[in-house]
Amino acid sequence: MRKKGAALITGGAGFVGSHLARRLTRAHDAVSVLVRPSTSLDRLGDLLTKVRLVYCDLRKPEEVEHALRAVKPRVVYHLASSYFNPPDLSARDHYEINVLGTLNLLEAMRRYDRPHLVFSTSAAECGSGSAITEEAPFRPTVLLGAAKAAATMLIRAYGELYGQSSVILRAYTPYGPADRPGRLVRYVIERALQGRAVEMTLGRQKRDFVYVEDVVEAFVRAGRKTRLRGVIVNVSSGRDVPVREVAALILKIMGDPVPLKLGRRPQRPDEIPCLSGDPRKAKRILGWRAEISLEEGLRRTIAWHRSFLKK
Predict the structure, then answer these.
(1) CA atoms within 13 Å, Cβ hemisphere of 33
(2) Is 201 exposed, middle or buried (0-12, 13-18, 19+ CB in 10 A)?
(3) Is residue 185 a contact partner of residue 246, using CB atoms and an 8 Å limit?
(4) 283: exposed, middle or buried (C-beta count within 10 Å: 0-12, 13-18, 19+)?
(5) Same structural domain for residues 77 and 217?
(6) How do residues 9-32 score in pLDDT, each as one tens digit?
(7) Structural domain boundaries, residue 243
(8) What is this structure's pTM?
(9) Model pLDDT, residue 12
(10) Residue 285, in any domain of the structure
(11) How many domains are there within the chain?
(12) pLDDT at 80
């Protein structure tokens, strides 16, 4: 029998996934984290004694079916994903990780009790815009956005064809402790702690920043909405902030230990000028809104980095 409350998290060793795993261990009888054999488990830390690790490559259907059969989850949180335009990922990589992996998961779920699905898509599937609604057409301008849009459409089709319940969360710019190297907030904090100038582009591109604990709360709430099928919900604050202002705010909180040097790095040719979502549907569907202000979230993240360096 499937354990009451059992959850499976794909990408559970990643940034948002590890925070979600930590939260769910306090609420579920069993939490399983699906990872590839080559995945670093550093973010899971003490959780390794509290979660079940399931080694699986989502690109291989037989491994996905075995994982679903072994775990028998009530809810699948599908966070496994490629990243924004890393130089070592091709179009095929984005397709295999996001589209083929999602298809294999949907097929396995269809065969094994159809557990509820919460999918983490990308704001990039709609392209540039401010206060983008969930009804906006897909207009991706980057490979990740195109792949995520295809995965979203697959999930919605499985809802129509097979009754697969799902909520599709479009998280805008999550930030917080244990973020990936190279991401803006982590980069600025680390440079400041190292006593090195923060070198950036002109920093005019705008992003909608949401603290990771708020993002996780949206996932938890979506996991309870088992009667919904293919519903897209923005996880956003509704504020689009130039990244140069975020960098300046981080340095201000830290006491301006190093200079901020704008225009020192070239902007990527495929940089999306603005990514910001309308948060009203999240309030209506999930009863969710971003509770932690940008400044408070940055303070918490800075404190975590300082504590991490002392370990």
Answers:
(1) 31
(2) middle
(3) yes
(4) exposed
(5) yes
(6) 999 999 999 999 999 998 766 999
(7) 176-208+238-275+291-310
(8) 0.95
(9) 96
(10) no
(11) 2
(12) 97
